[in-house]
Amino acid sequence: MTKRARLIYNPVSGHEQNIRNVASILDILEQAGYEASAFRTTAEPFSAQKEANRVGKDGFELIVGAGGDGTINEIVNGIAPLDHRPQMAVIPSGTTNDFARALKIPRDDLVAAAKLVLQGKTRKMDIGKAGDKYFMNIAASGSLTELTYGVPSEWKSILGYTAYLLKGAEMFPKISNNKMRLTYDKGVYEGDLSMFFLGMTNSIGGWEQVMPDAQLSDGLFQLIVVKTSNPIDILRLMAMAINGNHVKDPNIIYTKTRSLKVELLDTSHSKKKIAVNLDGDIGGYLPMSFTNLQQHIEFFVG
Predict the structure, then answer these.
(1) pTM, whole model, 2 decimals?
(2) What is the pLDDT of residue 162?
(3) For residue 23, is it within any domain?
(4) Which is deepest, 134, 225, 252, 294, by most CB within 10 Å?
């Protein structure tokens, strides 16, 4: 039987590059031996996720996701719960494209990214589960999280590290510690923290040394806990993160773990909701448990 591939593309991503390249991408998939078709996402919530789940259940062998990290996250959430999951290919047309960066997928040429399917090199990637949702790159929470994700991509492209300083000047008065209990493979941390990260790859917000020892298929999260909310300390840690030296600082816990359980300890803030960021979007609220699903989805890679 002929293999089937479904292109799921975000029509507004990348200044509408996806729309202009649909025919070329489908042609490449046909060259690779697939019967190819396309689905254009809509404004309906979880449009990409619902379509990915539908075609996954229908037995499609490949789903090609064209869009930013948010679109790819939706597709992952669509197929991750299935017993039999199709392969995935990523055509990055968002702003940061952290996941594509980690998989060595071309980020400035959509057609070149699609041609990786012709090369046939794949890798089974770990997927994170957070409550009843899934993520492929990063889970984070705490007051400092907004600084990490709140910097516009245009600022990062033009200003680099200075963009974080400008955002920091706005955010620092709002950064505070929260008392939490974090239970992970090698121990328990109870106390104040301004943010924790669970990383699947080495690329976060365009920075490639935040998780310097990240592996893609070892079944382990990279866990970083930032214990301080002092603006001077945070600026210093951010400068150190450019070269990966922040993980040696006493204000940081850096370890690997297969799972993580996060509980809130400050009962005085019991009505305050603390969001969990999954791949750049809110994916629920604490408390929450996280599990690494080792080599859960197979991706075409560069």
Answers:
(1) 0.87
(2) 46
(3) yes
(4) 134
